[in-house]
Amino acid sequence: DTAVSQTPKYLVTQMGNDKSIKCEQNLGHDTMYWYKQDSKKFLKIMFSYNNKELIINETVPNRFSPKSPDKAHLNLHINSLELGDSAVYFCASSQWQGANTGELFFGEGSRLTVL
Amino acid sequence: AQSVTQLGSHVSVSEGALVLLRCNYSSSVPPYLFWYVQYPNQGLQLLLKYTSAATLVKGINGFEAEFKKSETSFHLTKPSAHMSDAAEYFCAVMDSSYKLIFGSGTRLLVRP
User: Fold this and answer.
1) Could you say which of A62, A101, A115, B91 would form a disulfide bridge with B103 (CB–CB 3.0 to 4.6 Å)?
2) Residue among B99, B101, B104, B108 with most chain A CBs within 10 A, to mutate
3) Distance (Å) from the C-alpha of residue B98 to the closest C-alpha of chain A?
4) Pairing outcome for strands A10-13 and A110-114
5) Is the minimum CB–CB distance between A101 and chain B shorter than 8 Å?
6) CA angle, A85 as apex, A14 and A111 as ends, to 5°?
7) B42 vs B73 pLDDT, higher one
8) SS3 A47
9) At residue A98, does pLDDT exceed 60?
10) Taking residues B46-67, what's their average pLDDT?
11) Cα B64 to the center of its chain, rounded Å
12) Cβ-defined contact of A48 to B100 (cutoff 8 Å)
């Protein structure tokens, strides 16, 4: 039973399209994240939600819109996709940041390719 | 602002040899430091963490890291490399808003 699961694992699409990536965690964690890993393996946080509330919003284009329907789910919607959006997107979860020991549990990633 | 620097984007060792992956940190407060490992086509998983207790931290799979304040370092070591250790390794520091700031990663290659 996968702790943090993301769908789809692979996504190939044309520039200008809109796409979504879904994430679910069954660990009972309060906090969820989206990270972007570029082609050089550099990993950067995009968003963080705690119990459905946005708590971290890095400098990300507003074409990216996260949505958290409940604390076990955090989805990422991307409008008007651009070539530079090609990357692997990782969802992660952890306990609430106040008790956060820094241990994040990551999904397997969603590889987005924009043509 | 907190940051980490990983020296060497690629490290290659022979099976059975010592593994040493370098990480230096920058932090104005006592840092919380981490090593994560990413196997091919997988997400990251925690290897070990330093949270101001013992300076020598033991992790999973025989890895350990030593926090050295005087050198602002948190290098990862393993006495004897195994083929299954081949992966990407990330050092990270927690910043004041509880975000994890990752280094650029070091790819460990293990030669038979």
Assistant:
1) B91
2) B99
3) 6
4) parallel
5) yes
6) 80
7) B73
8) strand
9) no
10) 92
11) 9
12) no
The secondary structure of chain B as a DSSP string is --EEEEE-SEEEEETTSPEEEEEEEE-SSPPPEEEEEE-TTS-EEEEEEE-SS-SEEE-GGG-EEEEEGGGTEEEEEESS--GGG-EEEEEEEE-TTS-EEE---EEEEEE-
pLDDT band per the 50, 70, 90 thresholds, residue A100: low
**Mind listing the pLDDT tens digit for each residue in B5-36?**
999 999 999 999 999 999 999 987 778 999 99
- Which among A6, A41, A47, A105 is the top mutation candidate for probing chain B, defined by the most B β-carbons within 10 Å of its own β-carbon? A41
Chain A to chain B, count of Cβ pairs less than 8 Å apart? 54
Q: What is the pLDDT of residue A54?
A: 87
Cβ-based contacts of A97 with chain B (< 8 Å) = 98
Q: Which residue matches tokens 């919607």? A: A77
* A27-52 pLDDT tens trace: 999 899 999 999 888 899 999 988 88
What is residue A39's predicted lDDT score, i.e. its pLDDT?
Answer: 87
In one-letter notation, the amino acid at residue A11 is: L
